[in-house]
Amino acid sequence: MPTVTDARTVRGPSQALLVFMRQPSPRILAVQLVVLIRARMQVLADAGLASLTWWDLLIPVVILGVLWPVQEWVLHKYVLHLRPFELLGRRIDPYFAKKHRDHHAQPDYIPDIFLPARVIVPLIPVTVGFWWLLMPTPALALTAMIGYGGAALLYEWVHYLTHTSVTPSTRWFRKVRRNHRYHHYKNERYWYGFVLPQVDALFGTDPRPQDVETSATARNLGVELE
Q1: What pLDDT is stored for residue 132 in this prediction?
Q2: Are 55 and 140 in contact (CB under 8 A)?
Q3: How many beta carbons lie within 10 A of that of residue 7, not counting itself?
Q4: In the chain, what are the domain boundaries?
Q5: Alpha-carbon distance 139 to 117, whole Å?
Q6: CA neighbours within 13 Å on the CB side: how many for 125?
Q7: Cα 64–chain centre separation
Q8: Spans of the chain, pLDDT less than 50
Q9: Element (H, E) at 90
Q10: What pLDDT is recorded for position 224?
Q11: Spatial CA neighbour of 56 closest among 79, 37, 28
Q12: What is the pLDDT of residue 190?
């Protein structure tokens, strides 16, 4: 399969999945998820089915339905859209923010749609350590890691799909796609959510498009591109 760099040329689910799994960050996240699931299954095999509790269901639901959408909104608005700033006489412009500006400059350029591998890889041990320390047992820590890792992979998939020409088949995805296109082409100060687009309504960033002016900085986020 030839290299595809323009998301608009991706038209069907099968092609979308093939292109998706050729990208570095989805492959990294998928491998991480497989490793975590195998580890959880081994713990389950050692302890028996009786070791499963309702927490093993509740934790992923809370991560996917509450924690991830709020984190997604906060990071998108305040971290990915971070502008360069001065600190102790030095100009600080984090790599992840620059890469996100590249994405806004060319929204359909596939390599820039995904979170950079050099950002994801260092975060994996951080998140693993966080859940290991937070959860009361190793088994529940693995359950939380699976939920969080799954949410990360889902985010990458949904964000990527919004830029393809794959026809939305659900009301949820139609809203996600419409909102994200408004974010890129109408006004970058609104519509930050993906996995749960209602988070924008919660935080006041889901206005009626006709009530919002078309931004002149949606393509560079107010920063001159280098």
Answers
A1: 96
A2: yes
A3: 22
A4: 7-211
A5: 28
A6: 3
A7: 12
A8: none
A9: strand 90-92
A10: 76
A11: 37
A12: 98
* 185-192 contact pairs (CB < 8 A, 24+): 185/107, 185/218, 186/212, 186/214, 186/215, 186/218, 187/212, 187/213, 187/214, 187/215, 187/218, 188/81, 188/104, 188/215, 188/217, 188/218, 188/221, 189/215, 192/72, 192/73, 192/76, 192/77
C-alpha dihedral over 128, 113, 181, 18, to 10 degrees? -90
87 DSSP β-pair partners: 90
Residue 133 CB neighbours (<10 A) = 8
Which of 32, 33, 31, 5 has its CA nearest to residue 19?
5
| Tokens representing residue 185 in the block | 């082409």
Q: By three-state DSSP, how is residue 38 classified?
A: helix
Is the CB of residue 222 less than 8 Å from the CB of residue 83? yes
**What pLDDT sits at residue 50?**
66
Q: Considering only CA atoms, which of 188, 199, 205 is closest in space to residue 67?
A: 199
